[in-house]
């Protein structure tokens, strides 16, 4: 009987933890699908950016709003309602045929995610038999989900299409909903007054988490856009590249357990900053360097995020309240970075496109292409740039391919030289945004230095 009960508890834990991982992954899971969303829904760059921003913004706002009602809402009710809303939002997203409808359902997903993420903390504690073990599962699921989001979205987009991302999420949320109904969790009991020192340390941890998740926009969003939009990798190839992030984050878990909170968090933030600087200073197109840089970010994430979350969320009767604040802080950091980065990147990409055109013109003039082909190609290059929406990368290889570059060695060499110049110019366009994200990671060191070990005077 005991063995059967333990097996049931483990299965329910997996169901709830999977929903937690997917809700955290949803912050970045659609990044590799942005080009498909852009073309299929006939929208603008701003429109597709809101597919990401709306979710994170609603999660942040809803998480902080929950603080007013946590003491009056049962944890089980909170989690079940969140799972149901998240599942409904996922189905709505999958069926959306217009960008406005998709963004509306992404907001519904965000509201559900905030509720399920906060409530799942107490449910996992009840399932695991202690607050500390339940918190450990929640942290592990959240860290892995946030890291694996872009890669998972890329695989689903390449294998099927962008709606598959949301089709995948709906049954995961429904399994979590069943697990939530089968689980039993109590309302939070009254807790003694929290010491001012502990409150200050938690605040510092949450500020550091917000800054680090803002910095991770560089790894979870910008690096993905660079290799997909800038370098032309397919979603599945992009997923393979960014998989370095979750693999490295998982590998860092054992090391994190051997370090103090301050050491793990400081080292993690420095590694994230170093990885982003490496991405910003890419000397040329190099997938290998991107993989190494993302691995550095992944190790930093695996060291810092779990340690900061443990510092921010104490395994006591305030668990759900502390968790809501941490959820809000993470997603507020993401939204802040997206708001700062989006206009900067759009401006730099526009300038980069112009630089790419000039580089392409020089390449074309220096190539051994006959004048009867050179002039039409130059005209087409100008048209491609003019027709390319603001903030996106023009496909300057198209005029060469249209005139038989696949079979003409001279045209093929000119095309490849031109594409190389384009990619170099576009790569440099990402530099200011990536350095901004690196600066956010470095700033996280300030609140990290204010952290106190739990229980210290």
What do you see in this structure?
- This protein is mostly helical and 457 residues long.
- Among the domains are: 1-187, Growth Hormone, Chain: A; 348-429.
- The protein has 20 helices and no strands.
- It has helices at 2-25, 34-40, 45-65, 75-95, 99-128, 131-159, 163-182, 196-215, 217-230, 235-242, 244-251, 253-256, 261-280, 287-312, 319-366, 371-387, 398-402, 409-429, 431-443, 445-449.
- It is elongated and about 80 Å long.
Short description:
Helices cover 79% and strands 0% of the residues.
Q: For the CA atoms, what is the radius of gyration?
A: 24 Å
Secondary-structure-based class equals mainly alpha
Question: What does the overall shape look like?
Answer: elongated
Order of helices and strands: HHHHHHHHHHHHHHHHHHHH
Mean pLDDT: 79
Number of beta-strand segments: 0
CATH superfamily of the domain at 1-187: MFS general substrate transporter like domains
CATH topology of the domain at 1-187: Growth Hormone, Chain: A
Helix proportion range: over 70%
How would you characterize the largest beta sheet? Answer: none
What is the terminal separation in angstroms?
45 Å
- CATH structural architecture of the domain at 1-187: Up-down Bundle
Would you state the CATH class of the domain at 1-187? Mainly Alpha
Q: What is the number of helices?
A: 20
- Described by its quaternary structure, the protein is single chain
Query: Which band does the percent of strand residues land in?
Result: under 5%
Low-confidence stretches: 187-192
